[in-house]
DNA sequence: GTGGTCTAGACCACT
DNA sequence: GTGGTCTAGACCACG
């Protein structure tokens, strides 16, 4: 379910957050669902438990998760609206990115077709292996 | 001409690179043009010369500019094609970003209108105050 | 394993790059191997960490190694092919150098014998104490 | 007669030295010949007089030139033997370079053929447009 | 004046 | 612990 690129510039904990958020937004993980424990996750992904902990803590802080000491971590009830709201801020990033592409001579039609393709993807398949922007974290 | 956000998560030298690349792509800086010297730039932006040096040096490696010790830094002849090619790789980022927006429930029409607006911007005015994403994540 | 000539005209960071590349090409360092940390290396060679950083960073850019923040630096999987390709460009240098020697009256037989000796060296021993030109001019 | 690459990493004054030495070794300039004045040279090559001066001074220092105040610069009587002796030191460079090529997998036959080709060149034509190693100064 | 290298020492994010 | 960024200040070679 999770795929981590250890060589990526993007911090591992961010990759985990990114993927968890996607799974929630695409309804693969629902409010109330329990997440794998830090320990289990760390073994499964061969990653330092601290790193998992950091991802979970961050999501907890954002109100996406609810970690209950002694019981585990659960998807928060209002995870989806919170995430949706946050993601909307990606619009700023989009503006910048398109601006750059335009400067680089990518035609408007091409850009729009990419947008449409992305929307097609989400309709066909709720989730796929895509693992977020390989940005220089 | 240059504006640095000292609080940004994006390294200062990357901000400088970003802006220089934009100025080149938007024809404000042309091949053969001499850049402000490392020292002048460092004074102008109140930034350590080493940081400017790093930015210039990186652009030199990429073939965007040509540093000649004792003479100065000059925009390389083939700066534009190199940049255009590199920027095209932003298409992957775009796909990811749109995918995220779609998941977050941003309507396709809204997204496309943003794209179109960005293309309007570039047509009307060669450059504007936009200075890249102030955040890295 | 590393020897730095502090008096050389060749920058220290280039000397480090040179030697690392040799060790990789002569199979003393293999893909996946972890390099000494920046700090350890700086202590070992009595050199400022920033200088080591610069060497590692340059090799990272070239795709020879892969720096992972928080984890370390590792020899890249395709380090050898990249290096071999780059080194082949030394052929131009060779042409120039032999041309100079010829002009200076060094006999063809002498030059060829030097070439053959160098090839002997590499066959007998994978590595030896040779550590590159200590002078830049 | 002189061709300077202003963008080269190799300092201009070194390019001039390099070429003058070649012309002497290939008998195009002979002992006693007068060199163009610093002023004339600087105009001809569109180069700062100080730079020409530096090249001439260095050659004077090496005993290749003999600059006579008020009269001009002349090729020294023992320029050729001095140069030949110096160039022999390039043998060390050759050893290094061949060693690198060998490590990079360039076959011995290939390397030797390059050497032979270079010797052919010198027999056919005394000089050509070659302007020395484009080494990183 | 120019770019380039180096040191010393600090701080940050990540594992 | 790791790599990465930044500052302050020095020195060098080149024009």
Short description:
4 copies of one chain form a homotetramer. By secondary structure, chain A is mainly α. Chain A has 6 helices and 2 strands.
Structure in words:
4 copies of one chain form a homotetramer. The first copy, chain A, has 2 domains: 1-83, Arc Repressor Mutant, subunit A, CATH 1.10.10.10; 90-137, no CATH class. Helix content of chain A is 55%, strand content 6%. Chain A is built from 6 helices and 2 strands. Chain A has helices spanning 12-25, 38-44, 49-62, 79-88, 90-103, 108-124, and strands at 65-68, 72-75. In chain A, strand 1 (65-68) and strand 2 (72-75) form a beta hairpin. The two termini of chain A are 22 Å apart. Mean pLDDT of chain A is 83; it is low at 126-137. The A-C interface holds A 6-7, 11 and C 66, 68-69, 71. Chain B binds a DNA duplex (15 and 15 nucleotides) through helix 3.
Which range does the strand content of chain A fall in? 5-15%
State the CATH superfamily name of the largest domain in chain A: Winged helix-like DNA-binding domain superfamily/Winged helix DNA-binding domain
Top CATH class of the largest domain in chain A: Mainly Alpha
Helix content of chain A: 55-70%
Largest beta sheet of chain A, briefly? 2 strands, antiparallel
Our Rg estimate of chain A from Cα atoms comes to 17 Å
């Amino acid at each position: 379910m999770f795929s981590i690129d250890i060589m990526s510039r993007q911090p591992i904990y961010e990759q985990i957050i990114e993927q968890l958020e996607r799974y929630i937004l695409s309804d693969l993980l629902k409010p109330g669902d329990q997440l794998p424990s830090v320990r289990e996750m760390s073994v499964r992904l061969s990653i330092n438990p601290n790193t998992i902990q950091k991802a979970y803590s961050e999501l907890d802080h954002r109100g996406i998760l609810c970690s209950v000491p002694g019981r585990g971590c659960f998807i928060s009830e209002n995870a989806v609206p919170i995430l949706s709201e946050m993601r909307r801020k990606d619009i700023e990033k989009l503006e910048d990115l398109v601006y750059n592409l335009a400067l680089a001579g990518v035609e408007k039609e091409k850009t729009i077709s990419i947008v449409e393709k992305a929307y097609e993807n989400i309709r066909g398949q709720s989730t796929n292996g895509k693992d977020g922007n390989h940005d220089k974290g």
